[in-house]
Design brief:
It is a single chain. The chain is an alpha/beta fold and 236 residues long. It folds into 3 domains: 58 residues, no CATH class; 58 residues, no CATH class; 93 residues, Metalloproteases ("zincins"), catalytic domain (Zincin-like, 2-Layer Sandwich), CATH 3.30.2010. The radius of gyration is 19 Å and the shape is globular. The protein starts with a strand and ends in a 7-residue tail after the last helix.
Length: 236
């Protein structure tokens, strides 16, 4: 039996319930998504309880991403870009600043950009820096999509989720992760449409998916597949 559950930290978690299993197992799939295998017959509530009790171990699971950075690298993002340059003023520091729609990220010239700790730091700095740009271009874009569809939410906010890219609150406020800035526009629009559909259906029922598919121009499944296949330019 297969399905999925949603989690604030890990986003969509794919679930396989198997006859004969006596314990729960977690693994990272080739597309970077989290797979949970558990005994047949477990309830959603029980699955979420197991997820919470194993949360720390899940965070330590090895990731399959092969992210690399180099001096002179340009990372194209949503209506902006990141340029990685060397600096020789502050050893051990990664400087960063925005000039219009370009983020200049400047590790010291002696930094080993192949070092895992350095790569994680670079990824974290880029992700945090995108919050400014998300407020500037992502939220207005979401409002444009809502206006185009004739929909009205209680507002749009920037979130920080790496796997949970969007969320519609009980008060109809739509939160969009700053990390959406790394995705192609068609996937960003899909996430926005997904959350806008939650204004009508606060679940993932067939009615919800039919409405989301309508908002997506009949391409919900295609866009969901592209979302799962997309590789982020930073470490999750």
């Amino acid at each position: 039996m297969k399905g999925y559950i949603e989690d604030e930290e890990f986003g969509k978690i794919y679930v396989e319930l198997r006859r004969g299993m006596t314990s729960v197992r977690f693994s990272i799939q080739s597309d970077g998504s989290l797979l949970m295998r558990a005994p047949l017959g477990m309830t959603v509530s029980a699955l979420k309880g197991l997820l919470d009790s194993h949360r720390e171990n899940i965070r330590r699971l090895p990731r399959s991403e092969t992210i690399s950075f180099h001096f002179g690298q340009i990372i194209d993002c949503f209506r902006c870009r990141v340029v990685i340059q060397a600096q020789n003023k502050m050893p051990g520091y990664i400087l960063n600043h925005w000039e219009e729609n370009t983020l200049y990220l400047q590790p010291h010239e002696t930094a080993n950009l192949d070092d895992e700790a350095v790569k994680r730091t670079i990824s974290s700095v880029i992700s945090k820096s995108m919050e400014r740009q998300a407020i500037k271009v992502l939220l207005p874009y979401a409002q444009e999509v809502a206006n185009e569809l004739g929909l009205k939410s209680a507002g749009f906010e920037v979130g920080r989720g790496m796997r949970k890219l969007g969320h519609c609150t009980a008060k109809k406020v739509i939160q969009l992760s700053r990390n959406l800035m790394f995705y192609p526009e068609e996937i960003i629009r899909y996430i926005i449409c997904h959350e806008l559909a939650h204004l009508t259906h606060m679940n993932h029922s067939p009615q919800f998916h039919a409405l989301c598919n309508q908002y997506c121009g009949g391409k919900e499944k295609e866009l969901e597949r592209k979302l799962r296949q997309f590789r982020l330019p930073i470490i999750k």
